[in-house]
Amino acid sequence: YATSRDMVLVTVLGSCVAACLRDRVSGVGGMNHFMLPDCAQQDADSIVGLPTRYGTYAMEVLINQVLKMGAKRSNLEAKIFGGGNVLRGFTVSNVGQKNSVFVKEFLALEKIPVVAEDLLDVYPRKVYFFPQTGRVLVRKLKSVHNNTIVDREKDYNTRLRFSKVEG
């Protein structure tokens, strides 16, 4: 989501990563939220357009959207969050680690400075981003009173392994 209005953007992250991007002069900014760095070529060939659940696509969409709204590339800065290993003991395919490495490498390649980050660890996070000012509030969810986030992560992991990629 990208905006030039004075508003707050909010998301909850487990192993997913969110990039908060803004033009530090105009205040135009936005946030994405992606689940995987990229998709395998065979998956890319089987779908019409890459969904924004993939970092490669989500980052391009966010950058292009803020530029269309009047941001200047030279004024862009990023704040990145998430990538938590919220499924304790699940280390075979650490999606959070892969997402974190991806977003840092992508932003470095695009020459967009990362001015703040809160990546990895074992906690889910709730992120509040105020694009006009660049302010970000991050709440680590250390004591979740229900298993919603963990259940979603487990369900998502199962779907990634067994479902056809589409839409």
Q: Care to describe what's here?
A:
Helix content is 30%, strand content 25%. Residues 41-49 have low confidence and may be disordered. β5 (76-82), α3 (95-109) and β6 (114-119) form a beta-alpha-beta unit. It is built from four helices and eight strands. The strands form two sheets. Strands 1-4-3-5-6 form a five-stranded mixed β-sheet, with helices on one face. It has a three-stranded antiparallel β-sheet with strand order 2-7-8, with no helix packed on it. It is of the alpha+beta class and 167 residues long.
Oligomer: single chain
Report the β-strand fraction as a percent range: 25-35%
- Helical run tally: 4
Task: List the uncertain runs.
Answer: 41-49
Write the layout of secondary structure elements.
Blueprint: E1 2-3, E2 9-13, E3 17-23, E4 29-31, H1 41-46, H2 55-68, E5 76-82, H3 95-109, E6 114-119, E7 125-130, E8 135-140, H4 148-162
Parallel strand pairs: 5-6
Antiparallel strand pairs: 1-4, 2-7, 3-4, 3-5, 7-8
